[in-house]
Amino acid sequence: MGYEGKIFKYVGTRPIRPDGIDKVTGRANYGADQNLPGMLSGRILRSPHAHARILSIDMSRAARLPGVKAVVTSADFPEIPSVVAEGGEGGGVNYGDMSANVMARGKVMYEGHAIAAVAAVSDAIAEEALSLIDVKYEILPHVIDVDEAMKPGAPVLHGHIFTTGIEPRPEKPSNIVLRTQMGLGDPDAAFKDADIIIERSFKTEAVHQGYIEPHAAVAEWSEDGQCRIWCSSQGHFMVRTYTAAILKMELSQIRVTPAEIGGGFGGKLTVYIEPVAVLLARKAKRPVRIVMSRQEVFRATGPTSGTSIDVKIGAKKDGRLVAGAAEFRYQAGGFAGSPVGPACMTAFACYNMEHSRAVGYEVLVNRPMCVAYRAPGAPMAALAVESVIDEIAQKLNIDPIELRLMNASKEGTTAAYGPKFEAIGNIECLNAVKNHPNYKIPLGPNQGRGIASGFWFNFGGQSSAAINIAADGTVTVAYGCPDIGGSRASMALIAAEVLGIEFEKVRPVIGDTSTVGFNDVTGGSRITFATGMAVIQAAEDAIVKLRERAALIWEIGIEAVVWEDGHARPASANAGDFEPLSLAKIAEQAPLTGGPIIGSASLTANGPGPAFGTHMCDVEVDPETGHITVLRYLVTQDAGKAIHPSYVEGQMQGGATQGIGWALNEEYFYSADGRLQNAAFLDYRIPVASDMPMIDTVIIEVPSPSHPFGVRGVGEVSIVPPLAAVANAVSRAIGVRMTSLPLSPPKILAAIEGK
Fold first, then answer.
1. What is the tens place of the pLDDT at every residue in 117-139?
2. What is the CATH number of domain 20-28+460-605?
3. 531-587 pLDDT, tens per residue?
4. CATH, domain 34-140+213-262+268-300, list 3.40.630.30, 3.20.20.80, 3.10.270.10, 3.90.1170.50
5. pTM of the model
6. Distance (Å, whole) CA 638 – CA 655
7. CA neighbours closer than 13 Å in the CB half-sphere of residue 424
């Protein structure tokens, strides 16, 4: 079916989300809400040291404590080599590292690293049991900072890591996991033609995703070797795959049921406690629930990388950019896995620059293993590049929007990471800021305005969906992706649009791993794009079957039946003089025409539409205290086609809010002995409502040519520009270029005093 030029009836409207009532009334079940008969409380002992060799673990006193039903250490886990797996559902994952992160094997790599676990009849007994575990350590030198970890004399975390991407291969192990490079042209030669060159170094601290719900899982093991897991995650198929690999089980042995999720933002794309709960349940022969405390979440689950970045950009006097070069050094934590690759991909993507080079280094440090955080790697890269772009605009006395418009990537631009852009909305986003009333508001003393653009390439991946039509004409849409940002509403709107029935007649359902086809995780801004495409195809498959049933009823060929506005109709007068049959009428007669009517589709969605956004931030800086007040904030972003505009706006506002917190307040703060000092929301301060201004949004719709409805992912672009937008605003307000985040009051006062 073709949708180009279609006037949508349901897509683009703003109905109440199907799961909304359950969530606001408290009926929705989250990870910690599952209760099973005889369920035990699981607790995990964690390392107090940043880097240490485990000499011995004595579990005997804990195991003898009345009420303790099971204890486990790394000795209970299978041995898995530290190599990247190929093929299958979990290709590209190092299960050896993942297993060693779930439960320390031989060494602890960071404070908070799991050492052992217990299951007991109560929380209090489980906590007491942890205190009875005797662990002997040999404390080793540690390194926290990415630049320090790259120095020749730094403590080496893993003796088997030899930097890849460097020829010849290094002869000594180091903390540098890899070097990667991408770009276009010859920037070194092009810099010679520049009239102005600005080179800056930047530093950002590790920050956490800050989801409100901590990690939680319930595991049950049956006598026939089958196990069930209930958990809050960004992908229950991912939980099944990773748990099976770590425990060397078959996928068919594990059934994972998704709970509602109280936030993830990339932080729930891996497993921490699920395999532990399974082993405890197997040993105890009773269900086990593990719920992380907030301190455990901060100390042991992946933040995003702290970074050290150098950027150099050259331009002509008229503002035309001639070359750019950047070096990114990203922390990976105690095991490999930083987002330095996406940083290199996105750094210069907003600009039509013929000559660019991005070099990235992934570096091990004694911190928790890094995981994704909404456009992983891109916000820090944008901070550096967009700050230098802003400084060029200042030096050349060019409006920052005009400078970007002059150099904006557009359809036909070759991106530094390889592809040539098709239709994109970069220029439209810039013009939306330029023409917005906020951009014309005059600024007062100690106030500054920051502009920044951002890019994310988006992701497609594997998705499955089924359309089940009931006898009363209602429809169930079944798929397997946890709903983080309103995907239930989006899938229902898409199904209603294709089938031509009312939104209220469609009920979306997220099935477990045994009831729906495989789906990749909810991440990478892929769900509305990829799973939405599967829903479209499943609905189209259902329409073919509805036409077949109508043809049987009318006793004509299917080619003589068309589907329009939720009804089967004769294709022409020659097909017969029949009254149109509604979906409900056809479903009512399904038992007589062949049985239940089901449409299904499974696919690997390719070519996700890359997305751009431009943000504007106005701030006021108190020169006596260094306090920064965000006065107003504007987000413009290309959504391709907004399926549910309210949730698109929510994604835009949410990303901006997180980015503002990242820019102003958030950081992991470690003491000299490598211990995290602010592992709670009282000390690790995410923005609250009173910190934020009204965030204005403008949705741009430049349809993606690779999606039937023109959809682009929207969940990640919105966090890419804020770090730079805030930093640019503050830099202009105080007259000093700020290059280190967060922009805390002491840093601001020092910059003002040193001006």
1. 999 999 999 999 999 999 999 99
2. 3.30.365.10
3. 999 999 999 999 999 999 999 999 999 999 999 999 999 998 887 889 999 999 999
4. 3.90.1170.50
5. 0.97
6. 14
7. 31
